[in-house]
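For practice. Supply one:
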Amino acid sequence: MKLIETELYFYFDTNPDVKFGYVFKEGLAKGESDFFVASKEIVKDKPDYLKHLKNLKWQIFNKALNPVSDSFDWIYTKGIIKNQSPYYLALKDGMEALYTLEGQKTDDFEKIRDRGALTGESKYFWGKKNGKYAIYHVETGEKLTEDFKSSVIAGVIIGRGTYFVGSYGNEIFYIFDLKTGERLTKEFDEHKLIEILKHGDLEKAVDEIGK
């Protein structure tokens, strides 16, 4: 199926009668999955129209060009759209949650980081509530860690071992074990974190940093 873009709207060559105001190219148009994110609202008639995308309502559509999700203020194009997992991440009324085509699967969060359960790398994700991040299990909804000031995409989140990096603030970081909750290292700074993320091996980093 080829996505055609005109001056005013988008359509797929299999059915030119079904028109969209905007279609993200990830998913169906790139052959990544049978789904895509689109809005029916016309926006290309506005000057600097890309700035107006955040004001549209978005849905997921299938190969038959039928909507298969509710309307949202924003839908990210990772997860089911790229055939990475059954989940998608969407924003509604200022709050984010993970959904499947059957409906909402997690609590509402101020922010959900877009790696982990969403991308099929693990069953875990970083979610932010009341200004603090914690790791949650996507299937049970269980909160698995204490609260942290920031979230780091590494270790258990992306399916590598059971370790993760957490910070209580001031750009000071520690490595923890998700299984035991134990803090495994003394503090280290952002420069060391960048070094660790380059090789991505938290087990190695624990040996390097020590307690």
Notes: The first helix runs from residue 190 to 199. The first strand starts at residue 3 and ends at 5. Helices lie at 190-199, 202-209. Residues 122 and 173 are 22 Å apart (CA to CA).
